[in-house]
Design brief:
The protein is α+β, with helices and mostly antiparallel strands. It has 6 helices and 10 strands. The strands form 3 sheets. A 5-stranded mixed beta sheet has the order 5-4-3-6-7, covered by helices on one side. The chain has a 3-stranded antiparallel beta sheet with strand order 8-10-9, with no helix packed on it. Strands 1-2 form a two-stranded antiparallel ribbon. The longest helix is centred in the N-terminal third of the chain and has 19 residues.
Length: 216
């Protein structure tokens, strides 16, 4: 067993500070704290010059303008070199006409991949899985999504998660299944008997004391 296999993987937790890093990327050296004040989508892909990953990079590039409107930055990662990343990014632009606007981390020593638990040995010991980490402007990890190597991500769902998190933070509400911006949101349920009684008279769209919706 080599040294990298002996490293005990760590797994970040929701609601806790995202693991700090300082890395080399296609846009120069970056630290996690460089993104402070902005939301960050940190995502990993298995390898450069692979077809599913190429479709994902194109898809992330296509939603980048919408993410910018929401104060969200993108940053990719795989266990490839900066030279490989640069060549692949140029290849995508040449073959598909899509310019990749976000940095891509070169993680040859698997340092960031290990910190974030991106390597799933059951799938591959040499590639990062398709992980998505949503980090808020205070550096707190707010969402994690994992996909298998064979399944490309739905970037519209990732955009929806950002909208849901930002709506929750702004209005102190929750969002129901399949929620999209403009639809009604969930009012947090009361935690006392008196609160439950008051809820029934509050004027929300209420099915029962614990289930109320409202428009924003």
């Amino acid at each position: 067993m080599d040294a990298t296999e002996q490293i005990k993987p760590s797994f970040p937790r929701l609601g806790q500070p995202a693991p700090a890093f300082e890395v080399q990327t296609t846009q120069g050296n970056l630290r996690l704290e460089d993104f402070k004040g902005s939301w960050l989508i940190l995502f990993s892909h298995p390898a450069d010059f692979t077809p599913v990953c190429t479709t994902e990079f194109i898809a992330f590039a296509e939603i980048a303008p919408e993410l910018k409107k929401r104060n969200v930055e993108l940053c990719g990662l795989s266990i490839d070199s900066t030279y490989s990343h640069i060549a692949w990014v140029w290849n995508i632009e040449r073959n598909f006409g899509i310019k990749i606007p976000f940095p891509v981390i070169a993680d040859l020593n698997k340092e960031v991949a290990t910190l974030y638990g991106m390597i799933m040995p059951g799938e591959s010991k040499t590639e990062t899985s398709r992980c998505v980490f949503v980090i808020d402007p205070n550096g707190i990890l707010r969402a994690m999504i994992y996909y298998p190597l064979t399944t490309g991500r739905n970037t519209q769902e990732i955009l929806r998660v950002i909208d849901a998190l930002q709506t929750t933070d702004k209005h102190g509400v929750a969002t129901p299944a399949n929620w999209k911006p403009g639809e009604k949101v969930i009012v947090p349920p009361p935690t006392t008997s008196d609160g439950a009684e008051e809820r029934m008279k509050a004027g929300f769209e209420t099915k029962d004391w614990y289930f109320s919706k409202k428009a924003l």
